[in-house]
Design brief:
Elements lengths: L1 H22 L1 H22 L4 H5 L9 H15 L1 H4 L1 H22 L11 H16 L4
Helix pairs in contact: 1-2, 1-4, 1-6, 2-4, 6-7
C-alpha cells in the first residue's frame, strides 16, 4: 500500500503542478484537498466508520496539526513541479520525509517509539539527500 501511495504521489505532483499552472497553486491545492476529503469521508461512511471522523474533534488539538502538514504537502506538490519538475519535487519530498522520519524515530517525537539511528540509516540519508540535490540540475 505504501508503494502504491508513492506511485500515486508522483502522479499527483504532476497533475497538481499542471492544475497549478492553469488556475494557481493555492487553488489547485485547495481543490485537490476538497476532492480527497469528500472521497475519504464517503468511503469512511460507506464502510461504517464515519463516526470516527466526528471523534477526531474530541482529540487533543496538537493531533490536528496533521491537517496543517497535509496542506503543506498538497500545496508544495501543486507549486513545485511547474518550477523544478515532477522528478525533483518528488525526490525532495521523499528526502525531506526520510530525514524527518529518521529524526522522529531517533528522538521519539510526536508520541512515537524511539528507534536508534544506525550508521546504515545515516549513510542512506546522506546518499538520498545527495541524489535529491542532483535532481535539481537539468
Amino acid at each position: 500500500m505504501a508503494f502504491a501511495a508513492g506511485l500515486a504521489g508522483a502522479a499527483q505532483a504532476s497533475v497538481s503542478g499542471a492544475m497549478g499552472r492553469r488556475i494557481g497553486s493555492m487553488q489547485a491545492a485547495a481543490f485537490g484537498s476538497i476532492v480527497a476529503a469528500v472521497l475519504l469521508v464517503a468511503v469512511a461512511f460507506a464502510i461504517g466508520r464515519g463516526g470516527g471522523i466526528v471523534e477526531a474533534i474530541r482529540q487533543p488539538p496538537w493531533l490536528w496539526i496533521s491537517g496543517v502538514f497535509g496542506a503543506m504537502i498538497v500545496f508544495s506538490i501543486a507549486y513545485a513541479p511547474q518550477r523544478i519538475g515532477t522528478f525533483a519535487t518528488v525526490a525532495l519530498l521523499i528526502a525531506g520525509q526520510l530525514i524527518a522520519g529518521a529524526s522522529i524515530d531517533a528522538f521519539g517525537w510526536l508520541g512515537t517509539e524511539r528507534i536508534p539511528v544506525t550508521t546504515s540509516r545515516v549513510l542512506g540519508l546522506v546518499l538520498l539527500s545527495l541524489g535529491a540535490a542532483l535532481t535539481l540540475r537539468r
